[in-house]
C-alpha cells in the first residue's frame, strides 16, 4: 500500500507540471502580465508560486496541486534528527480557506521507510500573504503500536514566505492519536518544485 501511495504521489505531480501553463484563456493572457509585474497579493516573486499554496481556484472543482520540497530538523522526546519532506497541497475550487495536504516525511536516522500523512486543514490567512498558518486533522502511518497502520493525526503549521527565491521558513507541530504518541516538531525550509510558474490567482 505504501508503495502505491508513493507512485501515485509522484505521478500526480508530473501530470500537474505538464498541464499547468494554460488552464484558461484568461490565465494565458495573465501569465504575460504576471511575469512582468508580479502578483501584488502573493508571497511569490513575479510569475512564481510560493510554498504552501495552490493553483488557480475559480471555475475548477479543485485548484491545481502544488508540490514543495522541504528540508530541516525533526524533534521528538529530546531527540533531533535531519529530515526531508515532499509536500503536495491542493484545495477545493470554491474556497481558499480549506486545503488538502499529502506529505512524505523521510527521517534517515530512523530508517528508510517514510511517514505518509493526509490532512484536511484550515488556512485562515489571505491565500498568498507573506505569513501562512494552518491547523488540520487527518491520518498518518508509522504511529500505531499495532504495526504500520493508519492512525489519527492533528497538526498545525506556521510559515514565512521569504522574498529570496521563493523559500519559506516553517515550523510544524503534530501529534498522533492513541496511546504512546508524543508531540513532534518539524523545523525547516520549503521550496516550490511543481508547478514553479503559474498564472495570476485573481478571478
What does this 3D model show about the protein?
The protein has 203 residues and is an alpha+beta fold. The chain has helices at residues 2-19, 25-37, and strands at residues 66-76, 79-90, 98-106, 115-122, 131-140, 151-161, 168-176, 183-194. Strands 1-2-3-4-5-6-7-8 form an 8-stranded antiparallel β-barrel. The longest helix is centred in the N-terminal third of the chain and has 18 residues, at 2-19. It is globular and about 45 Å long. The model is unreliable at 12-46 and 199-203 (pLDDT under 50).
Q: Would you spell out the secondary-structure blueprint of this structure?
A:
Blueprint: H1 2-19, H2 25-37, E1 66-76, E2 79-90, E3 98-106, E4 115-122, E5 131-140, E6 151-161, E7 168-176, E8 183-194
Antiparallel strand pairs: 1-2, 1-8, 2-3, 3-4, 4-5, 5-6, 6-7, 7-8
Amino acid at each position: 500500500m505504501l508503495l502505491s501511495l508513493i507512485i501515485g504521489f509522484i505521478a500526480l505531480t508530473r501530470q500537474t507540471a505538464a498541464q499547468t501553463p494554460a488552464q484558461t484563456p484568461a490565465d494565458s493572457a495573465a501569465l504575460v502580465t504576471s511575469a512582468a509585474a508580479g502578483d501584488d497579493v502573493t508571497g511569490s516573486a513575479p510569475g512564481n508560486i510560493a510554498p504552501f499554496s495552490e493553483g488557480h481556484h475559480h471555475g475548477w472543482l479543485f485548484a491545481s496541486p502544488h508540490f514543495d520540497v522541504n528540508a530541516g530538523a525533526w524533534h521528538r522526546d529530546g531527540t533531533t534528527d535531519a529530515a526531508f519532506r515532499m509536500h503536495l497541497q491542493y484545495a477545493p475550487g470554491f474556497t481558499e480557506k480549506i486545503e488538502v495536504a499529502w506529505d512524505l516525511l523521510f527521517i534517515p536516522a530512523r530508517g528508510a521507510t517514510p511517514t505518509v500523512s493526509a490532512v484536511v486543514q484550515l488556512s485562515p490567512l489571505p491565500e498568498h500573504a507573506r505569513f501562512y498558518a494552518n491547523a488540520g486533522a487527518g491520518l498518518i502511518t508509522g504511529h500505531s503500536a499495532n504495526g504500520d497502520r493508519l492512525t489519527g493525526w492533528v497538526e498545525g503549521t506556521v510559515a514565512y514566505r521569504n522574498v529570496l527565491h521563493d523559500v519559506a521558513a516553517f515550523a510544524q507541530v503534530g501529534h498522533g492519536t492513541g496511546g504512546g504518541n508524543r508531540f513532534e516538531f518539524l523545523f525547516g525550509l520549503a521550496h516550490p518544485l511543481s508547478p514553479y510558474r503559474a498564472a495570476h490567482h485573481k478571478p
